[in-house]
Amino acid sequence: xxxxxxxxxxxxxxxxxxxxxxxKLMIRAGLIRRITAGAYAxxxxxxxxxxxxxxxxxxxxxxxxxxxxxxxxxxxLNLLExxxxxxxxxxxxxxxxxxxxxxxxxxxxxxxxxxxxVRNEVNSYRQLPMTLYQIQTKFRDETRPRFxxxxxxxxxxxxxxxxxxxxxxxxxxxxxxxxxxxRIFDRCGLDxxxxxxxxxAMGGDVSHEFMVPSGVGEDILxxxxxxxxxxxxxxxxxxxxxxxxxxxxxxxxxxxxxxxRTIQEVSAFLKVSPDRMVKTMxxxxxxxxxxxxxxxxxxxxxxxxxxxxxxxxxxxxxxxxIEHITGAHVGFAGPVGLNIKIIADQAVSVLQNFVTGAxxxxxxxxxxxxxxxxxxxxxxxxxxxxxxxxxxxxNNVLDVSQGIEIGHVFKLGTKxxxxxxxxxxxxxxxxxxxxxxxxxIGVNRIIASFIExxxxxxxxxxxxxxxxYHVIVIPxxxxxxxxxxxxxxxxxxxxxxxxxxxxxxxxxQRPGVKFKDADLIGIPIKIIIGKKFTENKEIEIKLRKTGExxxxxxxxxxxxxxxxxxxxxxx
Length: 571
Description:
Elements: H1 21-28, E1 32-36, E2 39-42, H2 44-63, E3 67-68, E4 74-76, H3 77-83, H4 86-89, E5 94-97, E6 103-106, H5 111-121, E7 130-139, E8 154-164, H6 167-188, E9 193-196, E10 207-213, E11 219-223, E12 230-232, E13 253-256, H7 263-270, E14 278-285, E15 288-295, H8 302-309, E16 315-316, H9 319-326, E17 341-345, H10 346-349, E18 354-357, E19 363-368, E20 378-380, E21 399-413, H11 415-419, E22 423-425, E23 431-433, E24 435-442, H12 443-453, E25 455-456, E26 459-460, E27 471-475, H13 481-495, E28 502-504, H14 511-521, E29 525-529, H15 531-536, E30 539-543, E31 549-552, H16 557-570
Parallel strand pairs: 3-7, 15-17, 17-20, 27-28, 27-29
Antiparallel strand pairs: 1-2, 4-6, 5-6, 7-8, 8-24, 9-10, 10-21, 11-12, 11-21, 13-19, 14-15, 14-16, 18-19, 21-24, 22-23, 25-26, 29-30, 30-31
């Protein structure tokens, strides 16, 4: 392709809307343009990269035995009602009323729809196992779209769904998809890690996330750099905190803390560190109040809490309920004298002589101790991991960092097949629910997360597998007939060689503009016809990633480029 015949609108400056490097560079390099909040158009270079990702995904999914389908983006609400997820999506669901007065959603995900198809088309164990996948646009009404294509209202996903006759079959299907994901991300050149994860709104128990470590990632990664344990923030466990010596329990003491409600305010007022304080949070579980105790420097993990309670969700009590239960204004709740079920985080259970609210407005208690002053009904891990916590496997200090989620695999079990009655007859003629798995990849996120990890001050540094072109040919002076003749000959020779994708910068621009644009769009191999050619008939070949430069004769350009491509394809 010649630059003059395509659309590559590069920009010198980053747009004000762009917050992170990948967003800035995707706009500056002419890959995308914002159409409205959370929606982007892919321009020619961006479309080439997008198709590279899609092709890799499709090849590996096919190789793993998955069968491609293409489902509608429009979804009737009755399917979400059948699965019980209509309220789960809530305001994230984009809906509209058609001319017939029917409310329809733009699909946020396709579990219900694929299960509906299978329940109507599959009725025998002889038709299973089966894994169906698609590459399709999804829609969610993000409250605050940001970071370009990393958090948008519409996004492209590869989603796959496996259907098996039993859990042994699910394990095999899950492993096939897990391995396919590793091959996909390896081929894309991504630096990724796999972590244990919580299934969230998708349901199921076992799941893993594929994460790209990044300081701009909105997910928190918990890793042990010694034994390799890894999990996301919702799933991560910690080693129990050792107990304190309980030989010296100080007398309980009530103190006046006027208008001091928060941990920070009480900590400063009493000169007690937050890790010596316990906060009492009142939740409503199955219509009944329950007190959840956490150390002052810890946060409740509601994902863990709901599992401890055995419910789909637990909600914080409102102000009136809290004041009715505790007899005090919000901010002064405590476990002493509280006549409701009490769940304490493990870190609380080993404390002694700590500070809590007194269940009286403007009052707190010093030297509180459980067993002596109140009873704990259940001890459980209901908090998020924090810095300094130790690995549950080897007791090494855990690393807490950020990451971008690019893929997620779930063992769903029968959550959807039960709800939507996707049944089959087994070899004994007994009706059973299909055992399901779900496997998603954020196609757009692969592009953005790659750029976050692979760029410099000059622009993007593409891997060969994702680059819109392998080679860019740059004649420095397009008005010099010899230079343009050499550039066109090299361009034609490379273009006609199968497997080499080449861009010719035939613009009549200053050399500096061309070189800056070449670095900005990140093509792996630059071929420069400039001063060296006019003086010595030598062609300059420069590698974008390393900056290495090589001088070759025109007749040797093709073989040299092919050797570089062969090397880069193995990197």
